[in-house]
């Protein structure tokens, strides 16, 4: 890693952040500075740490891998602090998702590097990647397939510039495939065939779904795809629409590269093709994965994009800052306190954040009905993020344990009344409804109890819409009339369980607002 000193700009600088992607193969960091419209990248770092080397498949990270990763994060943290960043956001993907000793890595990173690493789900990883792609590519009102061949997993996303239709994460990344089939060294034709067969079988269902949805063009992200496109050197052949950061790669040229790379050992690959030895060890597995996807979906050409998860983190953070600018100050303190409590109580954040997304979508589309304000919307989001805070104490009564933990957590930036509303909404998001004068409602005014009833009724439905914890319902549309609330569920996967659960949990919402409630599953 280049550790040459950097000089931070001292005058007139904007808000700065460092986004760190702790991947299975590489750790990437970009440092950006906010501008009036968007942001600019002011520094980049990458180190091929290969956290997943000799692990994955449920095996723990090796002590050597942990050391390499933590040392790299320490160096990156020092660079970020020289730039005087205001925030460091670090997320980890497949290698840490699967590692039984991931907490050892997280604790060491916090202790040694001063960086808090958050492990994200495959769905959240795909969301970040797609945000990055949308920021780098003009969709021209078309539908894109985004493919990210990471070290540990493959992400498939189908969507437009404004909406995501499908996401899928499969543990079949470049490092994983190379290790499993002996492609991290000179390999024979049989190893390639076995890898192809495995990938065809593993990806059959998600690729069938992608084909069913249809797409107009394909974007491949990650170091593997960009390296392959650079080796193919086809940017000049398809000049139309090529912009900075995008290169073309054809399936025919990809297969030529696979044939040329496979028989060579790592050192020979690196020398002949001019690539890093660590990349040379994983590139064949990633190449075959990309080739199988192109083959199964009949893709002749795709564009490789160097924007990836780290840019997605920036996009999400900058967007959130812009959306919440009017709520700066106490609002950011409140959010930090909520997320800290969620972390301390080991909340399943992939589930909690999706429930929060669905709850806010319902809130926004029923505002004329419930007549609540942005302040209550914020409390609903916090209730959704913390609705399972008590799960680690006991599943049977987790809503009551959550109520207690929230009530006594000392959430910074919140008034006592705000904490009480959040805690009560969580307490009544399942089992008993908040209609009586129970002990948990005694401290609330009549107006606050009404807020709790409305928030709890929405949270009940939102939680049911992620009953299987797979984000099967990606979005919800609500149509309201004087007598009816009609929910249209937009599924990502089969969502029968969510459909049934939501209909059951909506009975309280129906009674509270005096409208019949029904649910419709939109076509996938």
Index terms:
single chain, 524 residues, alpha/beta, six-stranded mixed beta sheet, five-stranded mixed beta sheet, globular, disordered N terminus
Report on the structure:
With 524 residues, the chain is α/β, with parallel strands linked by helices. 49% of the residues lie in helices and 17% in strands. The strands form three sheets. The chain has a six-stranded mixed sheet with strand order 8-7-6-9-11-10, sandwiched between helices. The protein has a five-stranded mixed sheet with strand order 3-2-1-4-5, sandwiched between helices. The chain has a three-stranded mixed sheet with strand order 12-13-14. The relative contact order is 0.08. Mean pLDDT is 88; it is low at 2-11 and 234-244.
* Shape label: globular
Strand order of the largest sheet: 8-7-6-9-11-10
Q: Which strand-content bin applies to the residues? A: 15-25%
The low-confidence parts are 2-11, 234-244
N-end to C-end Cα span: 45 Å
Number of helices: 20
**What's the Cα radius of gyration?**
24 Å
Class by helix and strand content? alpha/beta
How many strands, what sense, and barrel or not for the largest sheet? 6 strands, mixed
Fraction of residues in H or I helices: 40-55%
| Average pLDDT rating | 88
């Amino acid at each position: 890693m280049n550790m040459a000193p950097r000089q931070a700009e001292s005058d007139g600088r904007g808000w700065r952040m460092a986004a760190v992607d702790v991947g299975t193969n590489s750790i990437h960091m970009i440092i950006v500075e906010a501008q009036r419209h968007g942001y600019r990248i002011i520094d980049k770092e990458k180190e091929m740490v290969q956290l997943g080397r000799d692990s994955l498949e449920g095996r723990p990270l090796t002590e050597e891998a942990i050391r390499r990763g933590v040392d790299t994060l320490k160096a990156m943290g020092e660079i970020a602090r020289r730039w005087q960043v205001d925030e460091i956001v670090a997320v980890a993907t497949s290698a840490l998702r699967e590692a039984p000793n991931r907490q050892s890595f997280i604790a060491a990173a916090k202790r040694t590097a001063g960086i808090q690493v958050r492990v994200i789900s495959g769905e959240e990883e795909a969301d970040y990647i797609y945000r990055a792609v949308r920021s780098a590519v003009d969709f021209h009102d078309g539908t894109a397939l985004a493919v990210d061949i990471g070290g540990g997993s493959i992400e498939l996303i189908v969507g437009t510039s404004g909406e995501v239709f499908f996401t899928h994460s499969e543990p079949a990344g470049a490092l994983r495939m190379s290790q499993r089939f002996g492609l991290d060294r000179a390999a024979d034709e049989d190893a390639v065939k076995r890898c192809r067969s495995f990938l065809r079988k593993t990806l059959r269902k998600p690729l069938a779904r992608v084909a069913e949805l249809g797409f107009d063009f394909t974007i491949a992200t990650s170091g593997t795809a960009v390296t392959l496109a650079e080796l193919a050197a086809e940017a000049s052949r398809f000049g139309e629409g090529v912009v900075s950061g995008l290169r073309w790669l054809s399936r025919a040229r990809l297969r030529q590269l696979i044939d040329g790379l496979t028989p060579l050992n790592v050192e020979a690959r690196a020398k002949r093709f001019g690539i890093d030895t660590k990349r040379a060890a994983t590139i064949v597995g990633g190449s075959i994965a990309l080739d199988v996807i192109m083959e199964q979906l009949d893709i002749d050409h795709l564009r490789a994009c160097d924007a990836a998860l780290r840019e997605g983190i920036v996009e999400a953070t900058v967007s959130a800052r812009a959306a919440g600018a009017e709520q700066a100050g106490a609002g950011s303190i409140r959010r930090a306190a909520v997320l800290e409590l969620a972390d301390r109580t080991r909340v399943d954040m992939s589930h909690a954040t999706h429930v929060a997304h669905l709850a806010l979508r319902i809130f926004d589309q029923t505002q004329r009905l419930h007549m609540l304000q942005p302040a209550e919307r914020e409390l609903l989001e916090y209730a959704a993020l913390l609705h399972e805070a008590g799960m680690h104490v006991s599943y049977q009564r987790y809503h009551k344990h959550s109520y207690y933990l929230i009530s006594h957590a000392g959430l910074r930036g919140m008034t006592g009344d705000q904490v009480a509303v959040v805690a009560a909404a969580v307490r009544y998001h399942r089992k008993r409804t908040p209609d009586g004068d129970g002990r948990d409602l005694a401290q609330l005014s009549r107006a606050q109890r009404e807020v709790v009833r409305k928030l709890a009724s929405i949270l009940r439905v939102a939680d049911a819409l992620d009953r299987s914890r797979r984000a099967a319902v990606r979005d919800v549309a609500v149509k309201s009339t004087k007598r009816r609330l009609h929910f249209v569920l937009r599924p990502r996967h089969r969502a029968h369980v969510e459909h049934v659960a939501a209909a059951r949990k909506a009975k309280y919402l129906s009674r509270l607002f005096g409208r019949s409630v029904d649910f419709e599953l939109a076509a996938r």
